[in-house]
Fold this protein.
Amino acid sequence: MIRTATPEDLPALGPVYAAARRFMAENGNPTQWSDRYPLTEDLEEDIGKGQLYVWAPDGAVHGAFVLQLGEEANYREIQGAWRSDTPYGTIHRVASDGAVPGLFAACMDFCRARVNHLRIDTHRDNGVMQHLILKHGFAPCGTIWVEDGTPRLAYEWLAEA
């Protein structure tokens, strides 16, 4: 089950993101997220915008992600090329506590039911996420840069016409 996150979910989200940071570090990606990312303020802002979703397949929160509709500022400049300029949604901050498999597939089903054009990015060292992104039909489009100036691999998915 995926639902819109509420402020009451914040205590459960801390351990989810901590587990995701540990998993990333243990799998060759120790620098994409700092030891505190995302900040509570980031999650509160996402909740306020109604764009943070929690994954609770057994009633307990085991994962989270952002589906941001509309332009993503970091995607304005790309070394490479986007496949389409149509309106899109961006997936950010995908995290699981690892207790229940299937978050990314559930996230994709949820997002694709709402948006027929999706973009996502990840760190060069995040091989697990790159694998999942490609497995779920995204095409590599190039490199974008995030707020701190570091590069990210950018991907795009378009529904079949």
